[in-house]
Design goal:
Blueprint: E1 11-12, E2 15-18, E3 32-37, E4 42-44, E5 50-53, E6 56-63, E7 66-74, E8 81-90, E9 96-100, E10 103-106, H1 109-114, E11 118-121, E12 125-129, E13 135-139, E14 149-155, E15 160-161, E16 170-171, H2 189-195, H3 209-220
Antiparallel strand pairs: 1-6, 2-5, 3-4, 3-14, 4-5, 6-7, 7-8, 8-9, 9-10, 11-12, 12-13, 13-14, 15-16
């Protein structure tokens, strides 16, 4: 198993604009759907709908077999939203991984090895692959302090995949808007982003994968 050092993704709280697009329906020749986040925190859902996230905070992008969150920060000077870090958790194995400008951290490497989670690093990328054929790709910037970008690729399993988060549901045909619960479409993009923001209160910190990873590292050290 290769180790990764550098990279991460950041996520924000509110959405400032939305121009709804639509990805094509999946076919045997194109069995995967992707969710993408740019360095300026522009999210494109699994259904192909783009929107922008602005405030700082931790957000859930996708939660299913793979749980992915991002932390949104601000650029120096202009204070524009940037993608700072990304956290990943595999539901079955409990493998926890985070990526930021300082490198890659694990809650427990043994959990990741037991779960057959593959982590690969190249000059420009950090790639996490799961046995479920999910692929989380973090693009590293030329300078360590610059923001990252992120792509989450999910393999098709029939016409439905149980996922939720800012990336939206995984359905075929694709959702026709920003789906919040079931088939309910949220027309207010700011509210849609806010629904997937992890609250700042201490009582809600267990909902942050970054917090969970820190606690797992403490247990590994016997603290």
């Amino acid at each position: 198993m290769k180790t990764i050092w550098r990279g991460l993704v950041v996520l924000g709280c509110c959405v400032s604009s939305v121009a709804l697009a639509q990805r094509p329906e999946l076919t045997p020749a194109t069995p995967e759907a992707t969710c993408e986040v740019t360095p300026s925190v522009r999210v494109t859902t699994l259904a192909g709908h783009p929107f922008e996230v602005e405030p700082m905070g931790v957000y859930t992008l996708s939660r299913g077999m793979s749980w992915v969150q991002m932390r949104v920060g601000q650029s120096m000077g202009a204070g524009a939203p940037t993608l700072e870090a990304v956290a990943f958790k595999h539901r079955d194995s409990g493998c926890l991984i985070s990526v930021d400008g300082n490198g890659v951290q694990y809650g427990s490497k043994l959990d990741c090895e037991d779960g057959e989670i593959q982590v690969t690093v190249t000059n420009a990328l950090v790639i996490i692959r799961t046995p479920d054929q999910d692929v989380i790709t973090v693009t590293r910037p030329p300078k360590p302090m610059d923001p990252l970008s992120l792509r989450i690729t999910l393999a098709a399993k029939g016409n439905f995949r149980s996922t939720m988060g800012l990336c939206g549901p995984y359905t075929n045909p694709p959702a026709k808007g920003l789906v919040w619960v079931g088939t309910r479409i949220e027309k207010d993009v700011r509210m849609y982003a806010r629904r997937w923001r992890v609250p700042d209160e201490v009582t809600a910190r267990e909902g942050s994968l970054f917090y969970q990873l820190g606690e797992a590292q403490k247990r590994a050290r016997g603290e």
